[in-house]
Amino acid sequence: MTAPTTTPPSRMRNPAVVLPEAMRALLAAFEAAKSGGVPQATLELVHLRASQINGCSYCVHGGVLSAKKAGESDERLHAVAAWRESLFFTDAERAALALAEAATRLSDRPDPVPDTVWDEAARHYDERQLAALTLMIALTNLFNRLNATTRQPAGATW
User: Which end of the chain, N or C, is surrounded by fewer C-beta atoms within 10 Å?
Assistant: First the structure.
């Protein structure tokens, strides 16, 4: 099977670009998440995993570039989708990735974020860090939905 040579055109610019006051608010929230004491590498991994789950090509592409810029290795980035079977991640990163998956797949189970997932994350992160992780996951999901809905292609610039 060969890959298509063209992607469907985007439907419009990202709504946060069309409404610059929204973009300013979202970027401020991202900065707040980054100030919560979670290592940048962990935030990048969480962003990438949620974007993979949601099928947001724009955010997967941008997430890989951002993670590489922050010093992430190709080996770890290639393994994010299969983090459970990989030796590349710490226990704390695994807890953050499990939290990202649960908080992204809210409708997959009756208890969207089980206590076991939350408790494991809380073993590795304090309340401020949990707030930062939760905010990063939520913001990633928001951007994924904006980009997927408007068909923002990987590699596009706003």
Answer: N
DSSP 76-131: HHHHGGGGGG-SSS-HHHHHHHHHHHHHH-GGGSSSSS-HHHHHHHHHH--HHHHH
Q: Are 38 and 125 in contact (CB under 8 A)?
A: yes
Asked if 138 contacts 51 with a C-beta cutoff of 8 angstroms, the reply is: no
pLDDT digits (tens, 9 = 90+) for 45-103: 999 999 999 999 999 999 999 999 999 999 999 999 999 999 999 999 999 999 999 99
Q: How many CB atoms lie within 10 A of CB 128?
A: 12
Residue in the block written with tokens 């707040």: 32
Structure tokens at 16: 């946060």
Structure-token pair, residue 77: 């980035």
Q: Which amino acid is at 110?
A: P
Tell me the C-alpha distance between 115 and 17, whole Å: 37
107 Cα distance to chain centroid = 18
